[in-house]
Amino acid sequence: MFENNTYTDVIPFLKSLGAETEIVDEITIINKFSSVESELFSLNYGVGLRLMNNLSILEMRGADSLDFLHRISTNTIKNLNKEEIRQTIFVSQKGRILGVASVINFEGYLLLVTNSLNRQKIIGWINKFIIGDDVKISDASHRFDLYEISGPQSDSFMSLLVGNSISDISENYFKVVNIEGILVFLSKFKDVKGDNKFWIIAEPLKGKQLISYMLENKGPFDFNLVGEAANKIYNVEHGIPSEPFELNDLYNPYEAKMTELIDNNKGCYIGQEVITRLNTYDKVQKNLVGLYFSGDVIPSDSFSLLDDQQNEVGSVTSIAYSPRMKRNLALAYVKKAHSAHGTKLTAKNGSRSLDVIVSDLPFSKH
């Protein structure tokens, strides 16, 4: 289905629909379409469609691919069924996060969806461990566009487009679907709030056709095209760690609270001894937490976190102003002794200091 398509850049098309963009590390990022507030409303109460070009799609071929991934990453992969999708983490020998990948089994080959900034690092790291294995990995990002459809109205919206066949797609699986003659791969997941969300993998030309069709047939739904500005706020509000801010080689999966992607019953993998020791002997030093800021901040500001004795106890990784909560929020890694909900700390940026209060995640619970 996707073997011989010709690549067509979707960004100019999205700009014609109002997309405001910027280039970050040679990647054109869509900041917003309409307003951040309306896009956030769709993510929280309606349905939002987002081009995920901050992610890359790698292709892995060879008879040993599943077994190989099982041996080098944290989750069980070797029993991945046809059309099933499962996340796993690549960690260093020190147990630090190198990248998170969604592994999609097309039976004849695998697709790995991972952060674009890590693309070359992950390819190089995987190639490092291919020794006599029938495994070949390549960058297939130019052949695909990846979209996410999320929000509490997503299930009903997709039922409108796809019909009853939406119920044939199991959670964490994909199917080929036909939307008014547009063939795409559609997968189903649960979001952080327990609602269904969907990924669409499409040839670039078909992706443009699909966007046009959705805009023309959105019906009564609170549907919006969504950019990264609204998505970042949503992630911070709901305590969702993202690459490269919270998920990088400064931290391990336990600190990032991603234990569901670690199978402690599987055999050896790269970094397994360190990861097992962290779990068995409770050696986790930091926790990912939320912060309420007392004053105005710029999202790009860097802050270290101090206790009442002016000892450094953590650092801020992401900052966002939440229109819904009408205050500045942040994600941060904080030493365990200072990570309890309600703990007061000081955020320091050069000569500037602000009071912050630690919050459990997600913020929406409080």
SSE blueprint:
Elements: H1 11-16, E1 20-24, E2 27-32, H2 36-45, E3 47-51, E4 55-61, H3 65-72, E5 85-91, E6 97-105, E7 110-115, H4 119-128, E8 136-139, E9 145-150, H5 154-162, E10 173-179, E11 182-190, E12 196-202, H6 204-216, E13 223-225, H7 228-237, H8 272-280, E14 286-293, E15 304-306, E16 312-322, E17 327-335, E18 344-349, E19 352-359
Walk me through this protein's architecture.
- With 366 residues, the protein is an alpha+beta fold.
- It has helices at 11-16, 36-45, 65-72, 119-128, 154-162, 204-216, 228-237, 272-280; strands at residues 20-24, 27-32, 47-51, 55-61, 85-91, 97-105, 110-115, 136-139, 145-150, 173-179, 182-190, 196-202, 223-225, 286-293, 304-306, 312-322, 327-335, 344-349, 352-359.
- It has a six-stranded mixed β-sheet, with helices on both faces.
- The chain is globular, with a radius of gyration of 21 Å.
